[in-house]
Amino acid sequence: MLSYRIDEDLELAIPRIKDAEALYDAIASSRESLRRYLPWVDHVKQAEDEIASIQHDRQRFAADEGLDLLIWYQGQLAGKISFNGFDHLNEEADVGYWLAEAFRGQGLMTRSLDKMFEIGFEEYDLHRIVVRCATDNVGSNGVAKRTGMCLEGTQRKRLKLADGYHDQNEYALLRDEWKARQSN
Predict the structure, then answer these.
(1) Could you tell me the pTM of the whole model?
(2) CATH of domain 3-182
């Protein structure tokens, strides 16, 4: 199993079929807050739905089309972070992430995104990593800012969510910026 240890409590790992129940439980426990920004949440109605999702994630990984990692904290599934897709021509990846409510406010996503920078820049030789999120998504914007990403702009009415269209912020971190931080 491919996994990345961040510290003794925090690990990122490729999802396995046997993780479907824990993944479903994490989503179900935070359904109301997650659905605000993640429209797919309403399609997850039972653990079996996550089996198909995990199979899809693993196929994307095998085809070098994405990298989906579960976030494990002290042995509990806390959330998910992903390279949602690779733009191989421009050496860029788009990152998406979510955490179950019980695990928010502890710096887990900030540390997980920092690890994704390391994976992206060192293992995938990316030039640029991007995070896009609704302007009113305080948590996701905060994570991008805390990891030192640059706010490059706001796209008006870019995201269609359950309650209508929302403006979207785009943050990016370049490999050179990340490397400069590593040497300090």
Answers:
(1) 0.95
(2) 3.40.630.30
